[in-house]
Amino acid sequence: MEDWRDKQELVVMEGRIKVPYRWSAGEVGTRYLESLRDEKRFLGTKCGECGKVYHVPRRNCPHCFAECSQWVELGSTGILETYTVVRRQHPQLAPLPLPYGYGVIKLEGADTGFLHLLYEFEEGGLAPGMRVEAVFADQREGNILDVRYFRPAKGVS
């Protein structure tokens, strides 16, 4: 039997399928997100075995597998560990006006960093090791974007 593709030009269409989904944040994630939403407070969990403080909170330590049962309040300022600046607009991703950045931030009291948005900085004004502070959204919904972004900490050199 003859294959119709032998005599035809193959045309390829590229596309993206959007698959919306929802899932429970679980006990640990819910407590963390409610704290951001209701109190503008960052929480971490501390490993009962090795003492590491995790932000974003975890139920178990990935290093020694012990339970992280102790909750720790963290600061809303931290250290910028690494970053990149976005200077070109993406047609589907525009969380903030240009330029904005993404950075790994280690909050006061945490042993781990997390990725978040950076904004309100001058050109050339970001550097690893600098202090940054959280800017919370006015309307908070219980997700990580209740923290709109981090900016260079005011009054800190």
List keywords for this structure.
single chain, 157 residues, mainly beta, five-stranded antiparallel sheet, three-stranded antiparallel sheet, 1 helix, 9% helix, extended
Structural class: mainly beta
- Helical residue percent? under 10%
Strand content: 25-35%
Mean pLDDT: 92
Q: List the total number of helices.
A: 1
Series of H and E elements = HEEEEEEEE
Strand order of the largest sheet: 6-5-4-7-8
Structural write-up:
This protein is mainly beta and 157 residues long. The chain has one domain. Helices cover 9% and strands 30% of the residues. It contains one helix and eight strands, in the order H-E-E-E-E-E-E-E-E. It has one helix at residues 26-39, and strands at 42-46, 53-54, 70-74, 77-86, 100-107, 114-118, 131-136, 147-152. The strands form two sheets. It has a five-stranded antiparallel β-sheet with strand order 6-5-4-7-8, with no helix packed on it. A three-stranded antiparallel β-sheet has the order 2-1-3, with helices on one face. The longest helix is centred in the first third of the chain and has 14 residues, at 26-39. It is extended. The mean pLDDT is 92.
